[in-house]
Design a protein that fits this description.
Layout lengths: L3 E2 L4 E3 L1 H4 L15 H10 L5 H4 L13 H14 L3 E3 L5 E10 L2 E13 L8 E2 L6 H14 L1 E2 L3 E5 L5 H10 L5 E4 L5 E7 L2 H9 L6 E5 L1 H20 L12 E8 L6 E3 L2 E5 L6 H8 L3 E8 H15 L4 E6 L4 E7 L3 H6 L5 H4 L2 H13 L9 E5 L2 H9 L6 E4 L5 H9 L10 E3 L9 E2 L2
Parallel strand pairs: 6-11, 8-12
Antiparallel strand pairs: 1-5, 2-3, 4-5, 4-10, 5-12, 7-21, 8-11, 9-10, 13-20, 14-18, 14-19, 15-17, 16-17, 16-19
């Protein structure tokens, strides 16, 4: 069972830094160089200096992004930029955002959860990880000994009972509020009422937790814990059962929360210069039924509207830069992917991104590649349209349907991980809302 607990969080001392929105940031992996500079320039105490400081050509073992993050953290502590709560608490977080013209509120809470290796208990991953980001995060873990950003977990709760308990504990208290760079409004309340916290966390005792975001940080936390255990062993000691390094800070949202939104991750593909809609249709014919839906921006919008109206995973849309055409493609031969990847489950093979790569790109379009394919991943169709309209953009755009929560849970519960860039849980949970010390 998942062991979810309150903890004594470190938080920004707003009396010293001013507005929370000036010092918070998105998770490190969605910060591009432009945003990185904006965050650095926004405030001298912005959390980006801890999670994604600058790298320089002169970096070495003694002076690098991780060591500078540690020095910055020490300064924050010494200057009372960070202060620790006097009581154990969980933090209720409501995020208000706009999607496709609708105002949505996602409700969750920050706590800590006991680490466990994947496959050994109640915590399940759903995406693959890469060694590079984990090595980078491990250096930050070692240097700072602090969870600087929460991972994001989902749990089944059809009645939304756990969140309701905490929301009721908040009552009519005024929240701490911040608006991030993307316009997402975050409202937070600290809940210290022991009965409410115990009741809410007890409701998660027999429930699985599916990681929605933060897989690299979670696996890094496991590696950091293993290092701490080895150091203790070499000293003839045993780490106590509730040592803080045995936990990781987590943002928990019920899978039935009305504000839970999974956005698609569309593909922009290079390596297919000159590809036209006619050539595309001919190449896809063995496994897809295709038809032209339009051209340019209007064609792109019409294509995605049809994907959304369809509601399934087997309908894709392809935009060919060479002629500006948009082609709808519906899978007609699912067995083709079963024959290529028999080791994968039926749920995994049914994903739109699995169909796009496993059949369309890796199989049928591969003979047309003029060079090794390149990929960019975006979430808004406006980004797809802009890229295909630019002189140096991709040769092919692929619109894919958003994965469903049922598919995510089924694949993760079966011990599989989804293809890279399969899900995008929007909005991200910001860094800077709370911090969990590992010492």
């Amino acid at each position: 069972m998942a062991d979810v607990q309150p903890f004594r969080a470190f938080r920004y001392n707003l009396a010293r830094v001013g507005a929370l929105e000036d010092v918070m940031a998105p998770p490190y992996d969605v910060i591009d160089p432009v945003l990185q500079k904006q965050l650095h320039d926004r405030h001298p105490s912005n959390v980006v200096r801890l999670i994604l400081g600058y790298e320089t050509p002169e970096d070495n073992d003694g002076d690098n992004r991780a060591t500078r993050a540690a020095a910055c953290l020490r300064d924050f502590m010494a200057d009372d930029v960070f202060v620790q709560d006097s009581q154990l608490s969980v933090t209720v977080v409501h995020q208000e955002f706009v999607s496709e013209g609708r105002t949505i509120v996602r409700r969750g809470f920050l706590a800590r959860v006991r680490l466990e290796p994947f496959g050994s208990g109640a915590i399940f991953p759903h995406e693959e990880t890469l060694p590079g980001p984990k090595a980078d995060r491990l250096r930050i873990f070692r240097a700072t000994a602090m969870n600087l950003s929460p991972v994001f977990g989902l749990y089944p709760d059809p009645a939304c009972a756990a969140q309701r308990v905490l929301d009721q504990a908040v009552g009519r208290a005024l929240p701490l509020q911040a608006v991030d760079h993307a316009g997402v409004i975050t409202r937070m309340w600290s809940v210290t009422d022991h009965a409410a916290v115990s009741a809410a966390t007890a409701l998660l005792d027999d429930k699985p937790i599916y990681l929605a975001d933060g897989h690299h940080r979670y696996e890094t936390a496991l590696a950091y814990l293993a290092e701490r255990e080895e150091v203790a062993r070499q000293r003839g000691l045993v780490m106590e059962a509730d040592h803080p390094a045995r936990f990781i800070m987590i943002f928990l949202v019920g899978m039935n929360d009305a504000g839970l939104e999974i956005q698609p991750t569309h593909r922009l593909v290079g390596g297919l210069p000159g590809l036209t809609a006619d050539q595309l249709a001919l190449a896809l014919a063995p496994a897809f039924e295709t038809r032209l839906i339009g051209h340019g921006s209007d064609g792109c919008r019409a294509a995605y509207e049809e994907i959304e109206m369809d509601g399934g995973q087997e309908l894709l849309a392809f935009g060919t830069k060479a002629d500006g055409a948009w082609t709808m493609a519906r899978l007609t031969d699912p067995e083709r992917l079963a024959n290529r990847l028999p080791e994968r489950s039926e749920e995994w093979r049914s994903l739109g991104v699995a169909i796009a790569h496993g059949i369309a790109l890796d199989d049928l379009l591969a003979p047309l590649l003029k060079s090794p394919p390149s990929f960019r991943y975006v979430h808004q169709i406006e980004e797809v349209m802009a890229d295909l309209a630019s002189n140096d953009g991709a040769d092919l755009g692929i619109l894919v349907p958003a994965a469903t929560m049922d598919l995510v849970a089924a694949i993760a519960s079966g011990g599989e991980r989804m293809p890279p860039k399969s899900t995008y849980f929007y909005p991200k949970i910001g860094s800077g809302l709370a911090f969990h010390a590992l010492r």
